[in-house]
Design a protein that fits this description.
The complex is a heterotrimer of chains A (315), B (309) and C (431). By secondary structure, chain A is mainly alpha-helical. Chain A is 67% helix and 0% strand. With 431 residues, chain C is α/β, with parallel strands linked by helices. The chains are: A mainly alpha (315), B mainly alpha (309), C alpha/beta (431).
């Protein structure tokens, strides 16, 4: 999924002359330690991720609902019927469209803003700690808390509309079917930006000063340096940022659930995970929810691959 | 070492705009000393505007939580008529101390697990060869793609019904115990370290564990801090999972007890909106305070990635 | 990459398959029905109800030290149904929940989460003795009672007398009886600047929101019909259409906002009216001077018209091992004396037909509640049919589209909702 996935330097793993002899040549070095180190994580993944995932996939091919323990109800195999229900449900189509709208706004905004801010923060400036903390505050705060504040700020009788006066949109921000999803995209961008700034800051550390020096000797100004040195230099991080933003977007739940009153107005900000919640938990149709979830995971895989192709162009 | 890559400034004519890409340096630039340049001012303006946009909602939350009446109009951003009533309302309804303790236990447990096991896994994936490495890495990516809500119900049934971990700290932590995103970050970070760093130690016969904790870890401080912060907010702010797992109110973490307080605002408090904001503050302030404390440790300009390209 | 992922999944699947499960067992019904011992009960998190519950449990424990009862609040998120449903699946429910929404009962039943109260020897007789004909709406489709209809909160119009005065309206004789009067009054309230909204029900898409805008008005307009009658949707008729048109008018003229209020609009003086049950009187008594009128109809409202009950039942859950104790406690908690204390403490209406005569002294002392008690004799319930939640969600989706946001005519929306609900009913029938 990411760059330099296996772009290990040629030295890596070729074994060292000193110890290669010891390991009968076939076993690659570090292999026992490696397997051992990964074991706890692997076990964790099996019990917390694989078992429920397989269970979910199994559910998606049966007519199924959860019952009290010890009671038996039939869960007949229904083949693709749950998937057919998913694909014929008009709201599902709307939900995926909404996610696309979200991504088109959120991903470029996130990548652009976080890179620019990280670059600005990477210089020697005063109050750096303060600025960094400022960008981090929304990220560490619970969604529930921030949503409450945004509702006050962007409500029809809220702070922002009072500022704008007659320029306020009608219907207001969060109940306008054209604005609700963009609002969520902006909210999420704002909330998550601190984390991405941090990723970029870490990546900027790895760009050698001499590259900038060389560029400035070639007569590049700061803007030019930004585009010729910084942007290519943090490309791996950009892929990472884009993919995380996509995953976050595809798994949108609490924002439409809380900020726009359950995906309103009129489903214009409904998200697949919100639908899963409604169907699976509120309406006791875990089979439909499971099928929708499987479709969603496939969707995320496809979009992420596309994003990777896009961000790595020119490599 | 390479603390902040500040590109040296080409020497500029005072009149020419600094951004002009045509500006030709006549000579290697001397480091400018204490000269306020327009570029620098622009930088401050940009950062300050950004900070304002990012901090204002937070400020609004804080002020709103202390006001006797909270409404949407402009006046509500002005700190007048302050009272602590909203907070005492919360404290009367839920035992704050107990909830904070539960949140703390859950969060610290997750942090410890992620640090120990995540570092091991991240290091192995980046620097060691073993059979199945590609597979584990593929799984690592897949885990992050799958929305947690998809697995919530089946996982809940497994954890509470089959593993028998309802109303139990272990059950609360389990889904978050090892944060895959953190593992991924560790791997990415260790990938940037050249093998040569470790070769010498390996030749001396040091065990991989020793190499990881003695050589790799000290250099990985930024990655560790990033991962810790990233991991911290998950369990701290998580609502749905602990809500499902806990049935006893004495086991509820703060996010859950606040939610039940908020669902029951009407009729118990005189200013529900203020109480809502106060609840939000109670949840947010520890997280922000922790971050600010943390911040001092690693924004000092000597972040040392230990690697120079 | 993809091949790797597929391979990884395969490995995981094999591993997952080997992770065996040792399921919790459920109690055996025959022995549990006769077993006595300690039990746990859940109460709603309404402060007054908790106060009553604690006192009731203390009285019980004093008389039955060998069958100790522990009371706690439902671990509630946004709705308590989610918490209860989750506890059924895991087998961790309390024995009794004194806050079971009738709309969720069919789902809980389907999950085998409920104990049929009719299976107790005196089950049906007790429920009939206590609630009389009021209980009929709470029978499940198999004819059994899976819930004990416990208390209702008949929904009426509460209005803020001060704001009415501010708008130049007579606060003691409000003109709110017919739709046209209600609209005229609302326009006055908003245009005079007395209130931001005449009335402010939540415009969100939650499945239960129709209970506070459409359903009470429909109950009054249709003479007490349910949303579903005889297995078919039964609201796409002149009565339903008039109700939808009336609400559409309120939204279209901005007398009711299209956006949820972050807080309590009545308490904050943002809305002059609200559709609520008597529980709210205790809640608002310090902040708002309230008056009460019945929900309006086209021809004019009356004190005896039907309205939505907003009822909560008490139900017994199958995770309970000491069901004999639970049944005794249920009867104890709904006895005449306890019902009186409940009314006294919470102001909510126990499901008894002779409410106003049995507790006459209370209503004499609290006249505001008397109007609610009159209405409590004519309440209608949500239909007790499988798929209840889906049905309400389908209805709500069409309602928000047309009535709240006006993107479709209200008549078209009602007929669309009606045919969708019929489809759902057929699907559930076939299962």
């Amino acid at each position: 999924m990411t760059v330099n996935l296996e772009s290990a330097p040629a030295v890596r793993g070729s074994g060292t002359p000193a110890r290669a002899a010891a390991s009968a040549g076939r076993r690659r070095f570090g292999s026992r330690a490696g397997a051992l180190f990964v074991t706890p994580y692997a076990l964790f993944v099996v019990f917390v991720f694989a078992v429920p995932l397989v269970y979910t996939v199994w559910i998606s091919f049966h007519r199924f609902y959860f019952t009290a323990p010890g009671t038996h109800v039939d869960s007949p195999w229904v083949g693709l019927s749950n998937y057919r229900d998913v694909f014929t449900d008009p709201v599902v189509g709307q939900a995926f469209l909404n996610i696309l709208v979200f991504l088109v706004i959120n991903v470029p905004l996130t990548v652009g803003l976080s890179l620019v801010l990280a670059t600005a923060l990477n210089a020697k400036i005063r109050f750096r700690s303060f600025f960094r903390a400022a960008y981090y505050v929304p990220y560490v705060t619970a969604s529930v808390a921030l949503v409450a504040v945004w509702q006050f700020l962007f409500g029809s009788d809220g702070f922002v509309n009072h500022l704008l006066g007659p320029l306020a949109p009608n219907p207001s921000w969060l109940v306008n079917s054209h604005l609700a999803m963009p609002m969520i995209a902006v909210f999420v961008t704002w909330k998550q930006l601190g984390f991405f700034v941090m990723l970029y800051l870490a990546a900027l550390q790895n760009i050698g000063n001499e590259l900038y020096e060389a560029a400035s000797v070639d007569g590049a100004g700061r803007i030019r340096q930004f585009f010729t040195v910084t942007v290519p230099g943090v490309r791996p991080a950009t892929t990472l940022v884009a993919i995380y933003a996509i995953i976050t977007g595809a798994n949108l739940f609490s924002e439409p659930y809380l900020l726009t009153g359950g995906g309103g107005p009129d489903n214009s900000s409904v998200s697949p995970v919100l639908l899963m919640y409604q169907k699976g938990i509120e309406q006791a149709h875990p089979d439909f929810a499971a099928a929708l979830g499987v479709v969603l995971v496939a969707f995320v895989l496809v979009v992420s691959l596309a994003a990777r192709k896009f961000t790595e162009r020119g490599n | 070492m390479t603390a902040s890559a500040k590109p040296p400034q080409p020497q500029l004519q005072p009149q020419s705009p600094p951004q002009s890409p045509q500006s030709q340096p006549q000579a290697p630039a001397p480091r400018p000393r204490r000269r306020v340049r327009p570029g620098r001012i622009a930088q401050y303006v940009l950062l300050s505007l950004g900070a304002l946009v990012f901090l204002f909602p937070f400020y609004y939350m804080l002020v709103g939580s202390f006001r006797g009446t909270t409404a949407g109009d402009l006046s509500s951003a002005v700190p007048t008529g302050l009272t602590g009533g909203n907070y005492s309302a919360i404290n009367g309804a839920i035992s704050l101390g107990r909830s904070l303790l539960n949140s703390g236990i859950m969060t610290i447990g997750v942090l410890v697990c992620t640090l120990v096991f995540g570092l091991l896994a991240g290091y192995a994936l980046a620097q060691l060869r073993f059979r199945g490495r590609g597979t584990v890495f593929a799984v690592l990516l897949l885990v992050q793609m799958v929305p947690f809500q998809l697995l919530t119900l089946p996982l809940y049934v497994l954890v509470v019904r089959d593993y028998g971990l309802g109303d139990n700290y272990l059950g609360m932590m389990l889904p978050f115990a090892i944060n895959s995103t953190a593992v991924f970050l560790f791997r990415q970070f260790f990938l940037t370290m050249p093998q040569s760093l470790f070769e010498a130690a390996r030749i001396d016969g040091a065990s991989e564990l020793r190499i990881l904790f003695r050589i790799a870890l000290p250099m990985a401080r930024p990655a560790v801090l990033t991962a810790l912060l990233l991991t911290f907010i998950g369990p701290w702010n998580e609502f749905l999972w602990p809500f499902l797992v806990t049935k006893k109110s004495t086991m509820e973490p703060l996010a859950v007890s606040l939610a039940s307080f908020l669902s029951n605002l009407q009729g118990t408090v005189s200013n529900p909106a203020g109480a809502l904001l106060a609840g939000a503050c109670v949840l947010a302030v520890p997280a922000v305070a922790l971050f600010v404390l943390f911040q001092r440790h690693f924004t000092s300009t000597d972040i040392d990635s230990g690697v120079k390209g | 990459m993809l091949r790797r992922t597929a391979y990884a999944l395969l490995v995981l699947a094999t591993l997952a398959g080997t992770a065996t499960a040792c399921a919790r067992t459920s109690p055996d019904a025959a022995t549990a029905d006769r077993a006595r011992g300690p039990i746990t009960i859940w109460l709603s998190n309404n402060a007054q109800e908790v106060q009553w519950g604690d006192a009731m449990v203390a009285a019980w424990n004093k008389a039955h030290p060998d069958q100790h009862v522990t009371a706690q609040q439902i671990p509630a998120g946004k709705t308590s149904e989610e918490a209860i449903s989750a506890s059924i699946i895991a087998g961790t429910s309390a024995c009794l929940v004194f806050n079971t929404s009738p709309a969720a009962v069919p789902t809980f039943q389907k999950q085998n989460g409920l104990v049929p109260l009719s299976d107790f020897p005196d089950g049906d007789a007790y429920i009939a003795r206590r609630s009389g004909a009021l209980a009929d709406q709470y029978r499940s489709t198999d004819g059994k009672f899976y819930q004990l209809p416990w208390k209702s909160n008949p929904v009426m119009i509460l209005y803020n007398k001060k704001l009415f005065g501010k708008a130049g309206l007579d606060p003691n004789h409000p003109q709110l009886s017919t739709y046209s009067q209600f609209l005229r009054t609302s326009r006055k309230l908003v245009r005079s600047g007395a209130a931001q909204a005449a009335i402010w029900p939540s415009p969100s898409s939650d499945f239960f929101q129709p209970w506070y805008d459409f359903y009470p008005a429909f109950a009054a307009a249709s003479g007490g019909r349910q949303l579903v009658e005889n297995g078919r949707a039964d609201f796409d008729d002149p009565a339903g259409r008039q109700v939808a048109a009336f609400w559409r008018e309120l939204y279209a003229e901005k007398l009711a906002p299209q956006e949820a209020y972050p807080g309590d609009s009545l308490a904050d003086g943002k809305a002059a009216m609200a559709t609520v049950g008597p529980w709210a009187i205790a809640a608002y008594k310090d902040s708002v001077d309230l008056g009460v009128v019945p929900v309006p109809t086209a021809k004019g409202s009356s004190a005896t018209e039907p309205t939505f009950s907003d009822e909560k039942s008490a139900a017994m859950f199958s995770a309970c091992r000491n069901r004999a104790t639970a049944w005794d406690l249920l009867k104890f908690a709904t006895s005449s004396a306890e019902d009186g204390r409940f009314l006294q403490t919470t102001g909510q209406m126990p499901m008894r037909e002779d409410l106003t005569t049995r507790y006459a002294s209370y209503f004499k002392a609290n006249p505001t509640y008397k109007a609610f008690a009159e209405q409590a004799r004519h309440v209608i319930e949500v239909p007790n049919v499988p798929g209840s939640v889906d049905i309400w969600q389908a209805f709500r989706d069409d309602w928000t589209k047309s009535v709240i946001f006006g993107r479709e005519s209200t008549d078209a929306a009602l007929s669309d909702a009606s045919s969708q609900i019929d489809k759902l009913l057929n699907e559930y029938e076939g299962q």
